[in-house]
User: Fold this.
Amino acid sequence: MLRTVLCDLLRIEYPILQGGMAWTSTGELAAAVSAAGGLGIIGSGNAPADWVRQEIRKVRACTDRPFGVNVMLMSPHVEEVMQVILEERVPVVTTGAGNPGKYIPALKERGTKVIPVIPSVALAQRMERAGADAVIAEGTESGGHVGELTTLALVPQVVDAVSIPVIAAGGIGDGRGLVAALALGAVGVQMGTRFMVAEECTIHPRVKEAIIKAKDRDTVVTGRSTGHPVRCLKNKFARQFEEMEKQGVPVEELERFGTGKLKAAMVDGDIENGSVMMGQIAGLVKKIQPAAEIIAEIMQEAEQVLKRLGVK
Ligand code: TUI
Assistant:
C-alpha cells in the first residue's frame, strides 16, 4: 500500500489531491474524491462566499471524510470566502494565484491545514516561514494560471529548499506520474485535468469530450504579456487572444476580453469561444470514469510501476 506522510497529515487513504478548479470543482466532485479516499477540493475561483458555503455543506452531506477548499487569491470575494472557511472549520485549504501569508495564522488557529500552491522555490520558503503545513509545487504543464518552471525542475528544488511536505502538480495524470513525483521527493500529487473527466464532475459534457480528444500539443499559454498566464485549449478564443497580444492590445482590453470566458467553457460548453483550461496531460486522458475508479486505477498502476522498477 502506497501510504505517505501526506496520508497521515490530511487523514486520507491515498496520496492524491483533486485540484480545486474554478467553475469545475463543485461539491459533487470533491465529495466523490474524498469518499474514494483522496482529498476532494472545492474550487472557489471568483465565486461569492454563499456559493462556497453551499458546496461545503454538499460535501458534508455526502461524506464524513476530510476535504478542502481552494481559495483563488485574486478573487474579489477572498475575504468573505476566508470567513466562511473559518466558520465552517474546513479541514484543508489550498490557495492559488497569490501569497496567502496573512490568512495562515487564523486558519491554523481553527485547526485548518494550509497548503499553498507555489510556482517557485522562493515562495515555497516564504510559505514555510509563514506556517504552511505543506506546499503544492505546480509546474507549468498545469491547466489554468501557471508559473514558468516545469514540474520535473521545480519539485526537487522545492523539496531541497523546505522541510515541510511537498506535493507535486502539473503534468500528472496516472500512476507513472505519481511514482515519478515520489521519486522527485514529493509525498503525493495533485491532479486537475484527470478529474475533470470524472463522472461526478459537473462541467459541460463538451469540455470532457474536448479533453478526451486533445493531443499532446493542443494547449497553449495565453496572457503571458498581461502577467496572468493561463494554459488552455488552443481554440478560437486562445488564437484570438494570442493575436491581440501580438498586436500589442492594452492589458485592460485583454483582461476584459478574457472575462467570463472560463464560465462560458465550463458551464455553457462553449469550447470554441470559451477559455477551456486544461493541462498538457490532457493527451493522456482517454475516458470518463467515476472518481473512485480513477483513484483505484492510479494506485494500481503506481504499484505495478514500483514492481517493474524493482522497488517492491
Ligand atoms: O491558481 C492556479 N490556477 C488557476 S487560478 C484560475 S482562476 C483564473 N481565471 C481567469 C484568469 C486567471 C485565473 C485558474 N487557474 N494555480 C495555482 C497557482 N498559483 N499557479 C501559480 C500560482 C501562483 C502564482 C504567483 C502562486 C503564487 C504566486 O505568488 C505571487 C506573489 O504574490 O508572490
